[in-house]
Design goal:
The structure is a single chain. The protein has 15 helices and 26 strands. It is α/β, with parallel strands linked by helices. The chain folds into three domains: 279 residues, 4-Layer Sandwich (Metallo-beta-lactamase, Chain A), CATH 3.60.15; 153 residues, Metallo-hydrolase/oxidoreductase (Rossmann fold); 90 residues, Roll (Ubiquitin-like (UB roll)). It has an eight-stranded mixed sheet. It has a six-stranded mixed sheet with strand order 8-9-10-11-12-19. It is globular and about 90 Å long. The termini are far apart.
């Protein structure tokens, strides 16, 4: 514990609760603010045209002078994907493991900050001192090495953020967890535990990676043609397993996907991958080898594998087309909202004739702890208060029930929504209000300029199309000079709807002539009446409501 008496402690999730991904948690200790993770989330189906989703950081911008550090638990996109956007607005040093810092820097190359960023590489032996706290770290097992739990030491005890974790007894090297150190924190006194809830609904322990190695070995020995392994670009442990099995069976490995190539190069340069000479070949070289000697690791933009597979099926991928002799391993769980897309992709692969293996065949193992792993973390740390994080609401609730099963009472558990303040003051822990929080949508280079109204318009256009009316007026002679001309896209097939178009033009002509005969008139009034008239007529005739855009010109 620290010598200073901490008067006010707050935990504020800005992302990562009620959703999968977009992790961002604020830990306030008196006047100092610390940020844990700065992640992104991939868009849901209704977010048409959106590239990524990041947390609303208004609260941090408003209190930027109090932000003392940004602590990153691991190198996945859901933990570091929005770091460049945060550092555009908030100048603070970044703390993380060697690999995590290297991956975070790649985001800043694409979107550099105005001021240089200070990076501090930390290990499980590091200690960072601040005015009202000091921070230590412990290793966790996840699907990417160098994953860390973060510990803020206060006068009330330790605030422990687990990061994303599981307990795998077969984990080796940089994947091995600091179980003894976690238990030591529990003996010293954990004040608040913030723990990963992603697999809180799954009974038992998360399957060991050793099981996956056996499954991969069977597949690699049995395959008669090429093997395509689809995975998230930052799943280091799966990449290494694929390389190991390729070496074991005498196969060559090609990397498909720019994001995957970049991450692989970083991991290779830093020594996080073990590769024999000549095992890795260029994607352009696969045609020089027999199919049975080729393994292709596949991922797409932002590290999502589905996009790359779909291109290969449609024969749009510039280097690879899926063949009936291929074996495709789906070694990832799709992001929420992408399940239908994954099953459609699997069906298309099957139609080509290729063999598809999925998690049902034990190809996929989660990087997150299941119920018994989560109870083990609770029993090791023995927290006074518990805040489940990183999961949809039902997962947070399931984790809450697990905590109660270990002996905690409901009054000691706080399920927070984005922006909720969990506050400890004067010896009491309570929910004490809210700060601004939510989603910021990134579309191209636009940050937050696409909101609900734009998304509504995109949805309308995708459903019922657009109906454009163009009229040119001769204001001096008070008559229509040309038009109405009607353009339709995504609404009806014009050649088969001539009567509909003609009647629509007549209705517009009637409205316009009514107004131009007046001494004065407003453009907005004409346009609104055109919209109302056409909207009523088109819905009556088609039961559809296209977006109607009147364009009126004059000379």
């Amino acid at each position: 514990m620290v010598k200073v008496k901490n008067e006010l402690i707050r935990i504020i999730p800005l992302g990562g609760v009620g959703e999968i991904g977009k992790a961002m948690y604020v830990v306030e200790i008196d006047e100092e603010i610390f940020v844990v993770d700065s992640g992104l989330m991939f868009p849901e189906n209704e977010m048409l045209g959106i590239d990524i989703v990041i947390p609303d950081i208004t609260y941090l911008v408003e209190n930027k002078d109090r932000v003392k550090g940004i602590f990153l638990t691991h190198g996945h996109e859901d933990a570091i994907g929005s770091i460049s956007y945060l550092l555009q607005k908030v100048q603070a040093p970044v703390y993380g493991s060697k690999l995590t810092i290297a991956l975070a820097k790649t985001h800043l190359k694409a979107l550099p900050t105005k001021q240089p960023v200070k990076y501090f590489e930390v290990t499980n032996k590091s200690r960072m001192n601040f005015q009202g706290t000091y921070v230590t770290f412990f290793h966790t097992t996840h699907s990417i090495p160098d994953s860390l739990g973060i510990v803020f030491h206060t006068s009330e005890g330790a605030i422990v953020h687990t990061g994303e974790f599981k307990f795998d007894q077969s984990a080796k090297g940089k994947y091995r967890p600091d179980i003894a150190k976690i238990a030591g924190l529990g003996e010293d006194g954990v004040f608040i535990l913030l723990s990963d809830s992603t697999e809180a609904e799954r009974p038992g322990y998360t399957t060991s990676e050793a099981v996956i190695e056996n499954q991969l070995s069977e597949t690699f020995h049995a395959a008669k043609g090429r093997i395509l392994v689809a995975l998230y670009a930052s799943n280091f442990i799966r990449i290494q397993q694929v390389i190991d099995k390729a070496i074991e069976t005498g196969k060559k490995v090609a990397i498909a996907g720019k994001s995957l190539e970049n991450i692989f190069e970083i991991g290779l340069d830093l020594g996080y991958f073990t590769v024999e000479e000549d095992t890795i070949i260029s994607i352009k070289e696969i045609s020089k080898h027999n199919d049975e000697n080729i393994v292709v690791i596949v991922s797409g933009t932002q590290g999502e594998p589905l996009e790359a597979l779909e291109k290969m099926i449609r024969k749009h991928h510039k280097d690879i087309k899926i063949k009936d002799t291929d074996t495709v391993l789906i070694t990832f769980t799709p992001s929420p909202g992408m399940e239908v897309g994954m099953y459609n992709t699997m069906n298309q692969i099957a139609k080509v004739g290729a063999k598809v293996l999925t998690s049902e065949k034990n190809v996929h193992v989660s990087g997150h702890g299941s119920q018994e792993d989560l109870k083990m973390m609770l029993n090791l740390t023995k927290p006074k208060y518990f805040i489940p994080i990183q999961g949809e609401y039902r997962m947070l609730m399931a984790h809450s029930k697990l905590a109660q099963a270990t002996g905690m009472s409901k009054s000691e558990i706080f399920i927070a929504d984005k922006g909720d303040i969990v506050e400890y003051k004067s010896g009491k822990m309570r929910m004490s209000g809210r700060v601004q929080a939510g989603n910021v949508l990134i579309d191209g280079i636009g940050v937050g300029d696409v909101g609900n109204i734009v998304l509504r318009d995109r949805k309308l256009l995708s459903q019922d199309g657009i109906f454009i009316v163009v009229v040119t007026l001769n204001r001096a002679q008070k008559k229509i000079a040309s038009g109405p001309e009607i353009l339709s896209r995504g609404f009806v097939y014009v050649r088969e709807s001539e009567e509909l178009m003609e009647e629509s033009a007549n209705l517009v002509r009637t409205v316009v002539e009514k107004y131009v005969n007046k001494e004065t008139f407003e453009w907005t009034n004409i346009k609104q009446e055109i919209r109302d008239t056409l909207n009523s007529y088109l819905f009556q005739q088609t039961k559809r409501r296209p977006m109607i855009i009147p364009i009126i010109m004059e000379y």
